[in-house]
Amino acid sequence: MAKQKSGAATAAGGRGVIANNFVFTRYKRTQGRVTRQLTAAAVSLIVLFGTYTLYYKLLSESQGAARMALGVSLGITFLGLWTTYRIIHWPRFADFLISVEAEMDKVTWSDWGELKRATVVVLVTMVILTAVLFLFDVFWQRVFTSTGVLF
Q: Band of the pLDDT at 4, cuts 50, 70, 90?
């Protein structure tokens, strides 16, 4: 492993942390592409739903200040989407996502036949356990009711 540069203000490429937030370069752009895209999509959806909710909350509270509500919501949306873009290209997080995708490629996935059989086993087991727990509940309820512990 290579020795990292000392100093908290140094980020990838020798730029400072603040300067790194205003760069359009993509860190290892060909690696971990699917995992990064799915992560960016999920975080972007959270940002969009959050600002959508914020917009209607501000609109309902500020009687007639629709421009202010729209401006604040659009500003936060832009900031959130830009932050999402920068996070998935932040070297430490990007390396983590790249390693996640590499590990997921090593997973051996079962075929449809095995998946169906395993699903049937799980469902039958759950039905049997539900019935057993129901019978235990009925039994102990009758025992405790007859002894006067429950009324």
A: low
Q: Is residue 53 part of a domain?
A: yes
Are 25 and 70 members of one domain? Answer: yes
Are residues 50 and 117 both part of a single domain?
A: no
Neighbouring-strand partners of residue 10: 16
Compute the distance between CA of residue 70 and CA of residue 55 in angstroms, rounded to an integer: 6
State pTM to two decimals: 0.59
For residue 112, with 0-12 CB atoms within 10 Å meaning exposed, 13-18 middle and 19 or more buried, which class applies? exposed
Q: Residue 144's domain spans which residues?
A: 108-151
If asked whether residues 83 and 147 sit together in one domain, one would say no
Neighbouring CB atoms inside 10 A of 120's CB total 10
1 within a domain of the structure (yes/no): no
CA angle 60, 64, 69 (to 5 degrees): 65
Place of tokens 């490629």: 105
- Tens-place pLDDT, residues 72-130: 999 999 999 998 888 888 888 889 988 999 998 899 889 999 999 999 999 999 999 99
